[in-house]
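call fold target=SAM-dependent methyltransferase
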Amino acid sequence: MSDDEHEILAAAEKDLMGDIDTTVPHSARIWNYWLGGKDNFPVDQRAGDDYTAVYPAIVDLARASRAFLGRAVRHLAGERGVRQFLDVGTGLPTEGNTHEIAQDAAPDSHIVYVDNDPLVLVHARALLTSRPEGATHYIDADLHDPKDIAERAREHLDFDRPVALMLMGILGHVEDHDEARSIVARLLEPLPPGSLLVLYDGTATDRAFLEAQQGYDETGAVPYRLRHPDQIREFFTGLDVLDPGVVPLQMWRPDAGGDRRAVDAYCGVGLKP
């Protein structure tokens, strides 16, 4: 990052501190901590350490989720010719963001990031810059309002051409399963045939994972619901799911020599017919 970017980011963070509660842990900042980032606070570090004390595999899951994002975006941009990505629930920037991967494969890719956390958005605007051939935009919007997301994304993306809708580890923040399914359907509805859903979420497949998540939820942070793998498969209802199906993260088209340790999260990519 250049000196000018550092100054812009520092000034923006200072302005935002009045709106950020640093007494309650935040999932995006904890995820950043697990991935080795620096955009987190002591409360996030303590919560992250408490979580890993009960369920150490969460760090492997965090890394596996970034690896899946990379493989999926490379496949869509490089092999399927997708040039538009709607990434809902951006999280704090780390290495290997959606726009970086997509524009490495296809510099003219257009990416719209969506989040409603002020710290996430200020980092996004400072760090998630686009290649000149493409474009990167940021929308401050809530996952629970898919109509607003779609309307505002349409200002930057061509909904007459395929769009990759990315929901990476965020549907757990929607406690009611029927509501989560409705959100996915309503986000997909205005997208044209040939669009794709790229999704992963944590699964209720390990007792320690459930215990660690319950402890986190009791801190007062926004809770996260772990779902059965079959419930994650339901998000792809009506779509043509690409091989190898809805599977654990490490099993989705793994790179040769890649880390294949099992983690408690399922993922998939589905094509809208």
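return ok
The chain has one domain: 3-271. The longest strand covers residues 196-202.
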